[in-house]
Specification:
By secondary structure, the protein is α/β, with parallel strands linked by helices. It has nine helices and five strands, in the order βαβααβααβααβαα. The chain has one domain: P-loop containing nucleotide triphosphate hydrolases (Rossmann fold), CATH 3.40.50.300. It has a five-stranded parallel beta sheet with strand order 2-3-1-4-5, sandwiched between helices. The structure holds P1-(5'-adenosyl)P5-(5'-thymidyl)pentaphosphate. The site of P1-(5'-adenosyl)P5-(5'-thymidyl)pentaphosphate has 26 residues, from α1, α4, α6 and α8.
């Protein structure tokens, strides 16, 4: 039995964590077992690597090294959290995944596409997301939200990049969504929270039939 794998992508402060958690709550109330996780991180080894990357100490080593560090974290996360959950029939919702590497390190960091694809092959294997929500907001809106949520804490490695960097990120995410329209669903993240959440939930119901599937499983096991 295999569960389902959904990822959330987008720029800083676009609402990924908020809507990943809301979707997880919706699925749980439909009686589905959900693992809500994030990248970088999501497993003990990957959380250590998260700390190294987001502190900014690896920045002087260059984007290629950062891509390799994100891949090392992903490998640990897939092997210890994502794959076991999917094999147990659970739904996995992940806040950022491969598209973040493609955009931040690949497009903005100019890391060779061959290296990015090679790292994906090694780390992701058959754990490919079926559905990805790309929350789209202008960079200034996302950065302002991230700043107000952060309070007095310092901006992390990528949050401290320029507004231009974040606008280029948005363009790169949109281009990615244009290339994979079936998997990547672009959602306007400027809309009020409940409207965004409703759009996401409707898409999940239409594409992956959560309630129905759960009922079918119960019927098949005679529960
Ligand atoms: N990275 C990551 C790479 O470079 N390569 C990789 O391969 C990977 C995996 C991760 C960093 O690492 C980089 C990208 C990132 O820079 P992080 O701390 O996980 O860093 O940061 P983010 O993923 O960017 O998370 P943020 O917390 O900044 O943004 P979210 O999750 O998009 O936003 P969220 O949900 O926390 O919302 C921010 C605020 O906005 C409000 C929320 O309440 C919150 O206060 N909000 C809304 N307000 C109004 N209307 C709405 N619709 C709202 N939705 C949310």
């Amino acid at each position: 039995m295999r569960g389902h794998f959904i990822t959330f992508e987008g720029g800083e402060g676009s609402g990924k964590s908020t809507h990943a958690a809301t979707l997880a709550a919706h699925l749980k109330s439909a009686g589905i077992e959900v693992v809500l996780t994030r990248e970088p991180g999501g497993s003990p080894g990957a959380e250590i690597i998260r700390h190294i990357i987001l502190s900014g100490i690896a920045k002087p080593l260059g984007s290629e090294t950062e891509a390799i560090l994100f891949a090392a974290a992903r490998d640990d996360h897939v092997n210890n959290t994502i794959r076991p959950a999917l094999e147990a029939g659970k739904w996995v919702i992940c806040d950022r995944f491969i598209d973040s590497t493609r955009v931040y390190q690949g497009v903005l960091g100019n890391v060779d596409g061959k290296l990015i694809r090679g790292l994906e092959r090694v780390t992701v294997g058959d754990c490919w997301p079926e559905l990805t929500f790309m929350l789209d907001v202008p960079a200034a809106v996302g950065l302002a939200r991230a700043k107000s949520r952060r309070g007095k804490a310092a901006a992390d490695r990528f949050e401290s990049e320029s507004v231009e960097f974040h606008e280029q990120l948005r363009t790169a995410y949109r281009a990615l969504a244009d290339r994979e329209p079936k998997r990547i669903i672009v959602v306007d993240g400027r809309a009020p929270r409940d409207i965004v959440a409703e759009r996401i939930w409707n898409t999940v119901q239409m594409r992956l039939h959560p309630g129905l599937e759960h009922l079918e499983a119960e019927t098949a096991t005679g529960e």
